[in-house]
Design goal:
The complex is a heterodimer of chains A (about 150) and B (about 325).
Chain A: H1 2-29, E1 52-54, H2 70-74, E2 80-85, E3 94-100, H3 110-114, E4 120-122, H4 134-137, E5 139-140
Chain B: H1 5-37, H2 53-62, H3 74-91, H4 109-130, H5 134-165, H6 170-175, H7 182-185, H8 187-200, H9 212-215, H10 225-250, H11 261-280, H12 288-315
Helix pairs in contact in B: 1-10, 2-10, 3-4, 3-10, 4-5, 4-10, 5-8, 5-12, 8-10, 8-12, 10-11
The chains are: A alpha+beta (about 150), B mainly alpha (about 325).
């Protein structure tokens, strides 16, 4: 009986070893999962949350933000600073300063949800790098947008 | 038989080239195989598909400082990597890699290769003892426990082959398989042999003397720079020799249709090395007692029974 168990142990052991080898061989000949960044990039998920960005008004090209400040109020990390001015010919204010302290932001998205003008959205930037943290303490979200206050 | 100095120099140059190139290719191949078995690519950046990665690593190691610990036994510490590496230059002498590609035909070539294979363990033991480090010492003593467990089944395998071929000469053994490789007659013996060379080359699942997760790096924990790379060279060269021996003993050496002899030799040899890599990236490391159980209670009886049955069949 003992001899039988001895031989059976060798056989079942060898079979299980072969099964393991089959698994690793199948792995080896299948495609690697690695994405060779930065030469290749993985597709971002549709709901990816980068830092927030300011959307432009389609007609005027000005920031949609009218500086109500609800984003700054609701932000749990107090990382948004907004200032607005009223142009002479319009009723609504327009944002002239919109600064984000990205070092504090936890990407909770309350600002995006609370914005009555739907002026905020998540960007798809993820490859952010800088030499010092000050570069991300005051990110100017109005950069690149037109403004009614150009001189 | 007299040998001219020119022959010796040519031989040494050739062997150095084989040892160096083999290590460069095998380290690269190992990382590639490991990578692909993990759904990764392995090295990709230095050279096409990372081919020059090992070369870059080697150059980096050359530029590093070789440290000798204060508490180490200095002569032994310095001697250990040399003792590991030098026997390879002798062990490759009788290996026939082709019809005419053999440094020196020895009628006891097999015995020489097997005897010099033992010196690797001596190198590991010296490194383990000389480092004066508890991990290194544990690694070194494990290597000795290991050698007792695998060497007898290994020798029984070799003895069976010698009995079948009727010669200790590697060339004669290969030629004896002209009509049928010994793996066809002795499949069990081939499996035992492959397991024992995995043990002999200190490779996972039997890498007890290195055992990263238990002994950090085992016997070579205190080695840096070229001392470290000499151990690496030695490890991969022993793999080369063990695989070459396996291809000669069981797969007919350089003999095969269509392709020239050396190509067949290398194909078989690297096929066996691939098998060893495949083991390494599939099986987890055994416990010491499991390895001893395997060596003494499974490999030894099987090899002995195989030996006796073969002797009986040959006698009939």
């Amino acid at each position: 009986m003992n001899g039988y168990r001895y031989l059976a142990g060798i056989v079942t052991g060898s079979v299980s070893l072969l099964k393991g080898m089959r698994v690793t061989f199948a792995n080896m000949v299948s495609r690697p999962h690695t994405v060779q960044w930065p030469r290749q990039t993985a597709p971002l998920p549709a709901r990816f949350r980068g830092h927030i960005r300011m959307l432009a008004d389609e007609e005027t090209g000005f920031p949609r933000c009218f500086a109500c400040g609800s984003c700054a109020r609701i932000c749990p990390s107090a990382c948004i600073t907004v200032q607005g001015r009223k142009p002479g010919d319009r009723k609504k204010k327009v944002a002239v300063r919109f600064l984000l302290d990205f070092t504090k932001c936890s990407l909770c998205g309350l600002c995006v949800e609370s914005c009555p003008a739907r002026a905020l959205a998540f960007s798809r930037d993820y490859a952010l790098a800088g030499y010092r943290d000050t570069e991300f303490r005051t990110m100017d979200l109005l950069e690149g947008l037109a403004s009614p206050f150009q001189f | 038989m007299s040998i001219s100095p020119v022959t010796i120099v040519c031989y040494l140059l050739g062997i150095s080239a084989v040892v160096g190139l083999n290590a460069v290719i095998l380290v690269w191949l190992e990382r590639k195989v490991a990578g692909h078995m993990h759904f990764r690519y392995g090295p990709m950046e230095v050279g096409p598909h990372g081919l020059l990665q090992t070369l870059a690593d080697g150059i980096k190691l050359l530029g590093k400082q070789f440290l000798v610990p204060d508490a180490a036994d200095r002569p032994l510490f310095l001697l250990a990597p040399v003792v590991s590496l030098v026997p390879i230059f002798v062990a490759m002498v009788p290996l026939p890699l082709g019809e005419t590609l053999q440094a020196w035909e020895l009628n006891i070539g097999l015995l020489l290769v097997v005897a010099l294979g033992l010196l690797n363990t001596l190198g590991i033991l010296l490194a383990g003892w000389g480092s004066n480090n508890k991990y290194a010492l544990l690694g070194g003593s494990r290597a000795v426990a290991q050698i007792l467990a695998y060497k007898i089944p290994l020798l029984l395998c070799i003895l069976t082959i010698i009995m079948m071929a009727g010669s200790y000469s590697l060339r004669q053994i290969a030629l004896a398989q002209k009509d049928g490789w010994y793996i066809l007659y002795q499949p069990l013996l081939f499996i035992i042999y492959i397991v024992t060379i995995t043990l002999e080359t200190n490779r996972s699942p039997f890498d007890f003397s290195e055992a990263e997760s238990e002994l950090v790096a085992g016997f070579h924990i205190e080695y840096s720079a070229m001392g470290f790379s000499l151990f690496f060279l030695a490890e991969y060269s022993y793999m080369f020799i063990a695989a070459a021996l396996a291809s000669i003993l069981f797969l007919g050496g350089w003999q095969g249709p269509f392709l020239p002899g050396p190509v067949w030799s290398l194909l078989k040899l690297y096929g066996i090395i691939f098998l060893l890599m495949w083991f390494r990236w599939t099986f987890p490391r055994l416990r010491i007692d499991q390895m001893l159980h395997l060596g003494w209670k499974i490999l030894l009886p099987l090899a002995l029974v195989n030996f006796l049955v073969t002797a009986g069949v040959l006698a009939l």
